[in-house]
Amino acid sequence: MTVLPDEGISPAAPFPEATREQWRQLVAGVLRKSGKEVQDAEAEAALATALDGGVTVRPLYTAQDTAPDPGLPGFPPYVRGSALLGGWDVRARLDFADPAAANAAVLDDLENGATSLWLAVRGPALPPGALARALDGVLLDLAPVVLDAGPDTASAARELIGLYESRGVDPAAVRGCLGADPLGHAARTGGAAALDDAVALATRVHRCYPGVRALAVDALPYHEAGASEVQELGAALATGVAYLRLLTGAGLDVGSALDQLEFRFAATADQFLTTAKLRAARMLWARVARACGAPAAAGQRQHAVTSTVMATRRDPYVNLLRTTLAAFAAGTGGADAVTVLPFDTAIGAPDAFSRRVARNTSAILLEEAHLGRVADPAGGSWYVESLTAELARAGWAFFQELEAAGGQEQALASGLLGERIAATWAARSRRLATRREPVTGVSEFPDLAERPVSREPAPARPAGPGGLPRVRRDDAYEALRARSDAHLAATGARPKVFLAALGPAAVHTARASFAANTLQAGGVEPVHDPVSVDAGTVAAAFAASGAQAACLCSTDALYAEQGPAVVAALRAAGAHRIYLAGRPDALPGLDGYLYLGCDAVAALTLVLDRAGVAA
Prior knowledge:
By secondary structure, this protein is α/β, with parallel strands linked by helices. About 45% of the residues lie in helices and about 10% in strands. The chain has 21 helices and 15 strands. It has helices at about 20-35, 40-45, 100-110, 130-135, 155-165, 180-190, 195-210, 220-225, 230-250, 255-260, 270-290, 320-330, 350-370, 380-405, 410-415, 415-435, 475-490, 505-520, 540-545, 555-570, 600-610, and strands spanning about 50, 55, 90-95, 115-120, 145-150, 175-180, 210-220, 260-265, 300-305, 335-340, 495-500, 525-530, 550-555, 575-580, 590-595. The strands form three sheets. The chain has an eight-stranded parallel beta barrel, surrounded by seven helices. A five-stranded parallel beta sheet has the order 12-11-13-14-15, with helices on both faces. Strands 1-2 form a two-stranded antiparallel ribbon. Helix 11 (about 270-290) links the parallel strand 8 (about 260-265) and strand 9 (about 300-305).
């Protein structure tokens, strides 16, 4: 053992205290190198990120950043969770049309880690009359069942309650949710909301099944249409309040009405935003409950579902990482139940392997990472506490806007909510197009050689001409890649662009890599000759590439020095279109430009159009 000499430094000696002003000075120094002259608070503000809904994320949070007292885990206002410890209910999603296949999947899920079932019982999915076959062999007093039946909710609920009765299940032991969400179904389809049926179900289960909730306040229709976290919170609050009014109007007291509601939120790979959203949702619902005169014990039951908006069809295995982050965020945010959707959900009906991995995601987080053994893991973080308070403030403001418009039903019918969400998605689409919001495997690091994952079609989901749309982050790029795939199938080759790299590798590699990455995001194959190209060799290299278009890749200095001659040589060699990796002022007059922050979707659409790739 080597003993270091005593240099007068105690391991326990405190570090010198750093001040916010010192940090700001360092930030200002770094920004100055990039051409920004800012000082003090302006330097800190330059690194802030504006989120949709008027929420701003600052680069530094300290003890000076105060937030409302979150209370204690398991106690009002439930910011820190509705329970002390124990983890979450692992809820498996089942969307099968065949009752036998549904039953096999149900039993497999329950035998291998799932603790409750979320069944699609509607339209082209499982018919209500097939519930008995689908749940054959299931101990209904041990495995809670949650229904997603849309317009068939009343009949599906009757079938499920009939199963409880025919199998002699103790009504006090039954848990689950009948899933009635008439406003959510109206949001998806544009149809009328069957509010009376939902109220009738709630009054029945209140009398006979105290552990069953009749109504689901589902925020997924708004998230899947492109809503921000703030809009998701506001829409959920407005829906919950609308249901409370209906239930109390039907004779239930406030406490009983609250017990009939289960809330459903999306969980995304933005773990801090998801965690803060779930905490803010409980804070806001506790405020509503207090305003209604509810008992102090009234809390919000939460079901978190990994986002379909973030799921990609290209490089789908990356979805495994996204759903793991989302499940972690939902768990740290205090969700009571978590559904991890399989990584291939965006492609079609998930197979047994993807369903197993989805189940095991929660198992790892609970059993190996011990996430359920810590009360409110995110609590005490200045960032998370501040973000929770900011989301709560903005979500309450949006809720008030919906209430001022006449409530959730009127906000849907008038188009107000749809317009607000569409504006949010349009702004986000611009960030996706310019890759300020990158999508790994799609807009960043795409792989044209990847083997596609094939799945059987999944049952159609509720939709209607007047309903909210369903969007995905990869939509614009998926359309480009689909055009390229069709061109490959028709001609045997993808559209190609030759990368005319000027100068040595140290000079052109950065922009050549950037151009190749960008082109592949649109399904365009880059052909990169590793030999440095100048005006004397470009014709032969281009002719050998098999491409009809070229992209210059180098520094602005070499563009000025060699660019005109290389462009002329490329034109003479038959290049119909010439692009440049850089801004237009580097070499004006070319057919297009690829640079950091450009509208990549628009640029790639132009490349495909000019290459004769059918839309």
